[in-house]
UniProtKB/TrEMBL annotation, chain A:
Gene3D superfamilies: Leucine-rich Repeat Variant (1.25.10.10)
Keywords assigned by UniProt, alphabetized: Cytoplasmic vesicle, Golgi apparatus, Membrane, Protein transport, Transport
PANTHER family linked to this entry: ADAPTIN, ALPHA/GAMMA/EPSILON
Annotated Clathrin/coatomer adaptor adaptin-like N-terminal domain residues: 23-565
The UniProt record lists the keyword tRNA-binding: no
Membrane topology category: Peripheral membrane protein
Protein name in the entry: Adaptor related protein complex 1 subunit gamma 2
Family: Belongs to the adaptor complexes large subunit family.
Subcellular location: Cytoplasmic vesicle membrane; Endomembrane system; Golgi apparatus
Provenance organism: Astyanax mexicanus (Blind cave fish)
Automatic annotation (TrEMBL), chain B:
Location in or out of the cell: Cytoplasmic vesicle membrane; Golgi apparatus
Similarity section: Belongs to the adaptor complexes small subunit family.
Recorded GO CC terms: AP-3 adaptor complex; cytoplasmic vesicle membrane; Golgi apparatus
The protein's name: AP complex subunit sigma
Length: 594, 162
């Protein structure tokens, strides 16, 4: 491969490679040639070589040996070499490399270069990868450039200043006076940069808020000019004059006006004007959404209505819901009127829209609408994409806990979730549910019947299996009695119950925890039933030699209960008022002396 | 803040990758792969916003993308950027490329990656939007290209005041 082959030629050769291996071979040869070239001091095609290296880097191959070459090229006097050198610095260097400190001096020199393009290269690189030390060294230079007469440089210097403030917040004071004066510029790019700088300064340091509140009239004036300026072809996007700048200013106004009446008053007229302009706009509408955050008091309701209309337009439902999410914390009732549309969005085929709709629906649940909302949410749970399931399940549990109209409804809802999405619920669901069931004493009969039915139909969902086993163990006698007010009871014999529990014990789908629950349940039943105690005894003794250590330990303990401590069996296996099933086991340990 | 700008084709081959925060080379490639995986699954008629890429920025991360013929333009942003604003920005970027390359196609991006970087540098700097006026961007890029061509005159050109 000829060493001076240019970038395009190399790209052509790489694209000609038919397999991954061939491509790797081509690139390795090229990189070797480039490395050799770097070692030679001659200038020749240095910039070509670095360009080739950057291309190779984008494809994912190592390119760290180009770092020093970047430093050398930046120090060169030719513009083309500087350009590629700076690009290389942005792609290959970062704060952690020592090489990045070496370019600080070059950047300093270039910031005072006679050509604005060279200056802009230096500014761009500093803003992208400037480390804290570099920023500290060069901050005075940037401050000087903010006052330059060239608006091209000013706008770049403004963004560079933002980067410096992010790296070293204390240096913010250096830029505060210049930031003020930048607001009187006419050039949109400079204004844009200035507004970003002021926003950053205000967010970093609340003291700056007082200072910049004095600029509110100026900002309002700029906005007014933009909103009423009519057709300006240069900055026009779909009928709005420079929406990017308008959005930035609105965001800044929001920050400045927060909790400050004087500033908000100054903005009120403007916001009313923005609102009325936005009524006639159907596209390029980012700034109505931003303006709602700037609005206080009575405008909120209007804006929410406005957003509601956008909600119905499919393309904007995502954005509308994102905006509504921000308001729902503070103004719940205003957003409630759109609940129907939001709930419909749960059924949208777009996964992003579904996610937003889920968040918003969970936020909109209240005591008044809990039953209807829960119906929708449970329907959603059965069809929702897998990545949203656990979030939906935990959201449903929280909502049920806060607003459950009755205990029976609460238990039914949790059971429904366990049946639909039992694999995605969190671990503490099982003990929480057990606690809930214990507390609802008049529903024990109903619950145990329901759970038994669920258990015999399907034992895949482990959390459901665990709760069912526990319940059957505790309230097995109620199950066998066969009477229940709330639900038509099945006629269940002792053999049926023991069959069900043994199926759980033997199934390969059961986790060790579920098996533990089942074994304990069988043991507890020995005190609740009369005929099949021998069967229970034999099951328990079989598991005394089980491979699973935990299960084996339990079985041995229970065996001991049968043999040596039969008189204690009723005591240890009686009704628990303690939350977790191993409340029984701790009593057992007490009895057996360890 | 814009965390990254990626352009890749329908098969996931990167055509441009610009990161505004530092990641190792392996992480960068992983991000490109993950983003392609998420974006290529999307239907044609769903919205242009995606959440869920965990590698960049964790939960405060959105992907805003547009699909033009064989290319995906993806901007990874955090919550401080306006979604519709970024969509407009992508449009301005593509229109600028179109003007600079005269009916731009994927091959132009492949063979002139450095030029695309230069154009992008006039629009986004340090993760922040710098300039959105297409004519202004093109004027600057043209001036820079002219400067590169006339290399020998670099010390003699007067300081340009704009």
């Amino acid at each position: 491969m000829s060493p001076s082959v240019c970038l395009q030629e190399m790209i052509r050769v790489i694209r000609g490679a038919r397999t991954q291996g061939e491509e790797r071979g081509v690139i390795q040869r090229e990189c070797a040639a480039i490395r050799a070239q770097f070692r030679q001091a001659d200038s020749g095609g240095r910039s070509h070589n670095l360009a080739k290296l950057l291309y190779v880097h984008m494809l994912g191959y190592p390119a760290h040996f180009g770092q020093m070459e970047c430093v050398r090229l930046i120090a060169s006097s030719k513009y083309s070499e500087k350009r590629i050198g700076y690009l290389g610095a942005m792609m290959l260097l970062d704060e952690k490399q020592d090489a990045s400190l070496l370019i600080t001096n070059s950047i300093k020199n270039d910031l005072s270069h006679s050509s604005q393009h060279v200056q802009s290269l230096a500014l761009c690189t500093l803003a992208c990868m400037g480390s804290a030390e570099m920023c500290r060294d060069l901050a005075p230079e940037i401050e000087r450039l903010l006052k330059a007469s060239n608006s091209y440089i000013k706008k770049k210097a403004a963004l560079c200043a933002v980067h410096i403030v992010r790296k070293i917040p204390e240096l913010g004071e250096m830029f505060t006076p210049s930031a003020h004066s930048l607001l009187s510029e006419k050039n949109h790019g400079v204004l844009h940069g200035a507004v970003i700088l002021i926003t950053e300064l205000c967010e970093r340091n609340p003291d700056n808020l007082k200072q910049f509140r004095k600029s509110v009239p100026e900002l309002v004036q700029i906005m007014k000019n933009l909103v009423t300026s009519g057709y300006s072809p240069e900055h026009n996007v779909a009928g709005i004059s420079d929406p990017f700048l308008q959005v930035r200013i609105l965001r800044l106004l929001r920050i400045l006006g927060r909790n400050n009446d004087a500033a908000s008053d100054a903005m009120n007229d403007l916001l009313a004007q923005v609102y009325s302009t936005s009524k006639s706009i159907t596209t390029g509408i980012s700034f109505p959404f931003h303006s709602i955050h700037s609005i206080y008091g009575l405008y909120t309701l209007y804006m929410v209505k406005r957003i509601g209309t956008f909600l119905l337009i499919i393309e904007f439902s995502y954005i509308s819901m994102t905006s509504l999410q921000k308001i729902v914390q503070t103004d719940h009732t205003a957003v409630q009127r759109h609940r129907g549309t939001i709930v419909d969005c749960l059924k949208d085929q777009d996964a992003s829209v579904k996610r937003r709709a889920l968040e918003l629906s969970l936020a909109l649940v209240s005591a008044a609408n809990i039953r209807s909302m829960m119906k929708e949410l449970l329907l959603f749970l059965s069809t929702c994409p897998p990545e949203l399931r656990s979030h939906a399940a935990s959201g449903i549990f929280n909502a049920a806990e806060r607003y459950a109209p009755s205990q029976r409804w609460h238990i039914d809802t949790i059971l429904h979730v366990l049946v639909t999405a039992g694999g995605d619920v969190r671990d503490e669901t099982v003990p929480n549910l057990i606690q809930l069931i214990t507390a609802a004493s008049e529903l024990h009969c109903y619950t145990v019947h329901k759970l038994y039915r669920a258990l015999i139909s399907d034992i895949v969902q482990q959390s459901l299996v665990q709760v069912a086993c526990w319940c059957i163990g505790e309230y097995g006698d109620l199950l066998l009695k066969g009477e229940c007010e709330e639900i038509t009871p099945m006629q269940v014999t002792e053999d049926d119950v023991l069959d069900a529990l043994e199926t759980v014990l033997q199934s390969h789908m059961s986790t060790p925890t579920s098996r533990g629950f089942a074994l304990t349940a069988i043991m507890k039943l020995s005190t609740r039933i009369t005929n099949n105690v021998d069967r229970i005894r034999s099951v328990v003794s079989i598991y005394g030699s089980c491979i699973d250590v935990e299960l084996q330990q339990r079985a041995v303990e229970y065996n001991a209960l049968f043999k040596k401590y039969d008189h204690m069996r009723y005591f240890t296996m009686s009704y628990c008022t303690v939350i977790l099933e191993f409340g029984c086991r701790s009593r057992l340990s007490l009895v057996l002396g360890y | 803040m814009i965390k990254a700008i990626l352009i890749f084709n329908n098969h996931g081959k990167p055509r441009l990758s610009k990161f505004y925060e530092h990641y190792t080379e392996d992480t960068e490639q992983q991000i490109i792969r993950e983003t392609f995986h998420l974006v290529s699954k999307r239907d044609e008629n769903v919205c242009n916003f995606l959440e869920g890429g965990m590698l960049i920025g964790g939960s405060d991360n959105k992907l805003i993308y547009r699909h033009y013929a064989t290319l995906y333009f993806v901007f990874c942003v955090d919550s401080s950027e306006s979604e519709l604003g970024i969509l407009d920005l992508i449009q301005v970027f593509v229109e600028t490329l179109d003007k600079c390359f005269e009916n731009v196609c994927e091959l132009d991006l492949i063979f002139h990656v450095d030029k695309v970087h230069n154009i992008l540098a006039e629009m986004v700097m340090g993760g922040m939007v710098l300039e959105t006026n297409m004519n202004e961007i093109i004027t600057q890029v043209d001036a820079q290209n002219k400067m590169e061509k006339s290399e020998t005159f670099i010390f003699q050109s007067p300081r340009q005041d704009r």
